[in-house]
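Section 4.2 – Deliverable D4.2 (structural model, holo form)

The reporting period included a commitment to supply a predicted holo structure for the target in complex with pyridoxal-5'-phosphate. Inputs used:
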Amino acid sequence: MAKINENYLKLAGNYLFSTVGRKIREYQETHPQAEVIRLGIGDVTQPIAPSVINSLHTAVDEMGKAETFRGYAPDLGYDFLREVIARKDYQERGCSISPDEIFVSDGAKCDCGNIQEIFSTDNVIAVCDPVYPVYVDSNVMAGRTGVYDESLQCYRNVIYMPCTAENGFVPEFPEQTPDLIYLCYPNNPTGAVIRKDQLQSWVDYALAHGSVILYDAAYEAYISEPDIPHSIFECRGARECAIEFRSFSKTAGFTGLRLGFTVIPKDLKVMGTSLWSLWARRHGTKYNGAPYIIQRAGEAVYSEEGRKQILQQIAYYMGNAKYIYEGLKEAGYTVYGGVNAPYIWLHTPKDMTSWEFFDYLLSEANVAGTPGSGFGPGGEHYFRLTAFGSRENTIRAIKRIQKL
Ligand SMILES: Cc1ncc(COP(=O)(O)O)c(C=O)c1O
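Output (structure tokens):
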């Protein structure tokens, strides 16, 4: 008789964004005249840059001719893409990463959800609180956590590292030593960044304790201030203790095209075994390569013209972020983020819970955001707005909030 993976039954409630979506739908059904502006889910709205579109067209045409047709892509990605990533994202920033340490994939969500497979289920994970839910849920599914404790809003056997306004949303070292440490900077949901010396001290900590850092840099392209690390591999010793995830989704609007990559240095060994080789084995078995057309589109992101166009897009979103940040501040809100990340993290007014504020904003301003408590107990009394809307909608949403 078939049995299910009972770990799935431990998962608490619905995936955050499904609940947000359902609530908006229900509201619209009962208020059909209301025009809800969504500044909640972190999807982009700007069209793909012209250079990338040109590259897509060329690659599509190549697929229509016998001489240039491509079938299965190499498991780990085409060399033309891995080479340009290694050069532009790493070597030009002083990080020693070679093309064959880059694993091209269809996005960071799959990679940061799947990476836990190459580690023992006995490993204890540490996550920031609040946190991008994928890290925790994927470990729940794998059986690496205990049950969900409703009263604490936490899974047992997971180390939650509080990220608060007081610590600048960068965690302190936990009392219990974790085996796997998930860090994400620029951060979703808080919009915070980590300084180089802080990241270096996490690398030193991991090296001293034999832990591995799983570093999600999906929002790296949004860093605007100098002296903020773009990669964990800018830190000394990171090649021996860190894996990094990157995504083209927010960098270049690929949420619908799907492209990302994971960097695993060959020096990274656990109990003498190379994690590179385990992930290569896993990738080869369970993944058949990102599409050629999409990898060519990814290559175009690094061209001179492509880069220029993408920077314009990022500047557009960050213009929204500035507008939201300043508009909310003027309206008396306490606000964080929005400078090196497309997320604005605000403290809910009048001691409202995150969900109370969600309902209030939806019904009184017809603006939808994301309740901070959906990212973990540390997100309670916070709320996330994203800068990914159109400028027009962003301005209208903030004006509505200012009138409340
Ligand atoms: C922190 C973080 N990592 C990864 C992802 C997923 O990226 P992708 O679209 O490449 O799967 C997201 C998307 O919202 C994210 O916020």
